[in-house]
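User: Could you go from structure to sequence for me? I need the amino acid at each position, not a summary. Structure tokens:
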């Protein structure tokens, strides 16, 4: 009897993507959880989801550049809680300190960070161009503007009396 070959299927794991983004007037950070077989698959799923979010929500509408800080493989149990994505900044000084896995030699966890260019910079993960609000938003804004104009006209009429 011939032994059946089992196809090698990578078991899906849980990943935590840590991102930073810059808009014209704002910057911020966010995290994404994704189930994927490997780091490449996790990054592809995160990128696809970010594009979906940008198309279907008000996020990233003013244009944004998103960078991957790190992606953390959290696909196993951790008997010792792991502190990840530690970000600290101060209003007194410009700049922010970011560490994907700060000072925890007792936590065995793998993180992957993007390659840096020779000058220390890294390539954007995703870039979103500025977009006009969806038509439904335009209608609501126009209606709100018309309501304000009408309210202003009523106030003017009341003053004349």
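Assistant: Here is the amino acid at each position, in order:
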């Amino acid at each position: 009897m011939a032994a059946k070959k089992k196809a090698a299927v990578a078991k899906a794991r849980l990943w935590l993507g840590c991102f930073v983004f810059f808009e014209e007037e704002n910057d911020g950070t966010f995290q994404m959880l994704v189930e994927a077989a490997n780091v490449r698959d996790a990054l592809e799923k995160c990128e696809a989801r970010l594009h979906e979010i940008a198309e279907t929500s008000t996020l990233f509408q003013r244009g944004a550049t998103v960078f991957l800080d790190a992606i953390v493989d959290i696909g196993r149990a951790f008997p010792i809680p792991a502190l990840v994505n530690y970000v600290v900044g101060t209003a007194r000084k410009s700049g922010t300190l970011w560490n994907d896995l700060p000072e925890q030699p007792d936590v065995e966890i793998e993180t992957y960070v993007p390659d840096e260019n020779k000058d220390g910079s890294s390539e954007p993960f995703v870039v979103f161009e500025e977009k006009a609000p969806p038509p439904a938003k335009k209608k609501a804004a126009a209606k709100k503007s018309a309501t304000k104009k009408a309210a202003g006209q009523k106030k003017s009429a009341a003053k004349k009396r």
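One structural detail worth keeping in mind: The CA atoms of residues 67 and 125 lie 5 Å apart.
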